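May I ask for an example protein's residues together with how it folds?

___
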Amino acid sequence: MSAAVNVIGAGLAGCEAAWALAQQGIPVKLYEMKPEKYSPAHKYSGFAELVCSNSLKAARLESAAGLLKHEMEMLGSLTVPCAKENSVEAGGALAVDREKFSDAVTEKIRSHPMIEVIEGEVTELPAGICIIATGPLTSGAMADVIRGLCGEGLSFYDAAAPIVTAASLDMDRVFYASRYDRGEADYVNCPMEKDEYLAFHEALIGAEKVQLHDFETHPFSVYEGCMPIEELARRGVDTMRFGPMKPVGITDPHTGRRPYAVVQLRRENREGTLFNLVGFQTNLKFGEQKRVFSMIPGLADAEFMRFGVMHRNTFINSPELLNADFSMRSRQDISFAGQITGVEGYMESAMSGLIAGIAVARRLRGLEPIQLPAETMTGALCRYVSDPFNSGKFQPMGANMGILPDIGVRIRDKKEKYGVYAARAVEALGKELSRVGC
């Protein structure tokens, strides 16, 4: 190979993409604006800087995060081994010494003979094949470039409602219906009596919020449609009942009358294993979300696959724009990687770079692409961000067992059930890698 592949951004995703390419003998030009320029969140000069928590989530295989990391190692990850080599005590989680982890990744990248590091801000796409991994705080110039590629499919705020598993809902308390019985009964409805609503309202307005960074503008000051549910509640005791919790057009089959208020849940994925709380964008701390939203009838034992978030986060409408290997449908010479694709979390971002790099490398070498099984956490995430079904309502997603196909048997013990999911995933990925000769 004579022409190098351009990777823009040396965060987790960019480093994984560069490493995957280089390990396949593909020359790489890795562009990184640090130390010439820093985003408001970045402080360290090294690559793969962790700007928030130093935890990479659970380590055990029978967890979504642990399964993802295991699959990444099977696929040749750079960051997972570096994390393990620079881990710190964190109970059942894989947490790292931030600087040592960054230094380890940086040394691996800078010492690789197939990788050329180019320092300085990129303001236009270099000629040739490009993998854009500029992160959730993409600089203004690159944001303009991305907007030119993606059109209106570019968002600057991650304003998302919590997502729960369908299997964890108490179907004795909830019911399927659409407002005024229009169309199919696709919504799960959680009816509230007056006393339940008032208690919920009181808990909601008293719950603790996440403190935003100075560089983050709260979304609701920009767009009223992103109003956090707790802010809406503070406007008055009945405000939610005239907004996302309005009961008009809904009849509770258990009572034969209209409820005082209702929380509606909408299907989040094609399979119907996940549902989101409609209109419940929130900036509450995760523990507070679990406490307060579990007060909603039918959600007492809800399994939260994703908590609501509201923060500065540049991401594209991937289901409309990307293939499952993170290449653009309209331009195969351009791929995206990292949080900008709508995967949420450190390792999820790294995974997307790894898959994008592998896909480009195999394409350039004339090799058959890897078909990631839907049973794997990696494959499920890739499908989630590229499934046209999610277009128009797309919100970022992290690794969770709810996006995997059902195992077809009921196992009450969660650890045992997730162990079955993990074993199935590892076996499926192993078979695929053997099939393509990896």
In short: The chain has two domains: 5-153+317-435, 163-310.
